[in-house]
Specification:
two-stranded antiparallel ribbon
Length: 213
């Protein structure tokens, strides 16, 4: 049963989330509301700690990365929070446990999945593209291009929002070389390639699950 203090905290978080949603994107008012919201969440003492007892010496590193990425998501995607669906803490704890902690495990532990670090569809043949049933790589391409949660576009090289994972996937799948992409975006080839490989590792679990690889 929720205590009166918990209920009051939930109401404050809800009001801050609604306030942030009510201001224009990138406005000063929205940033202020989001800053307060993030501070309240971090200071609430109610963020869950998934899989305690696992990963031994790396747990805190994984957890801090997960929380940091979660807070970035909250700031960038607050419009996805639906007040009528439940408290803010229920929303963020679900995201933390089911998505961001899993992503952080892959980032810290270097976990590989079926996607590994392969260039997603660079092995697709002309014959595959002509099949009546879409190939695996075509399904992956469609999924990333649709970007249902906006995560692939949001993930970009620092200082270069145009150099985001979604753009890089589309360019590579269109046959563009790293040299060409580097020239167009003004980013070093090594930086582009390293970022791309990290994103493949980070998002591999999500893509694998949603596309059912």
């Amino acid at each position: 049963m929720n205590s009166p203090e918990t209920h009051l905290q939930d109401e404050r978080l809800r009001e801050l989330a609604i306030a942030a949603r009510g201001h224009p994107d990138r406005s000063r008012e929205r940033r202020k509301a989001l800053t307060r919201l993030v501070q309240e969440i971090l200071n609430s003492g109610r963020l869950c700690r998934p899989r305690q007892g696992q990963f031994v010496d790396r747990y805190e590193e994984i957890y801090q990365i997960a929380v940091q990425n979660l807070m970035l998501y909250v700031c960038g995607q607050i419009d996805r929070y639906k007040p009528e669906s439940g408290p803010v803490m229920r929303w963020v704890n679900f995201l933390l446990e089911k998505r961001f902690f899993v992503d952080a495990i892959a980032e810290v532990m270097g976990k590989k999945t079926a996607i590994k670090t392969v260039e997603i569809n660079e092995e697709v043949t002309v014959e595959n593209s002509r099949e009546s049933n879409p190939s695996l790589s075509e399904l992956v391409r469609q999924y990333i291009e649709e970007d249902p949660e906006g995560r692939f576009e949001q993930k970009h090289i620092r200082g270069h929002p145009e150099a985001n994972f979604k753009v890089l996937v589309k360019r590579r799948m269109a046959g563009d070389s790293w040299e060409q992409i580097s020239t167009d975006l003004g980013v070093k080839i090594s930086t582009l390639s390293d970022f791309y490989q990290r994103c493949l590792k980070q998002f591999s679990e999500q893509i694998k699950g949603d596309v059912q690889i």
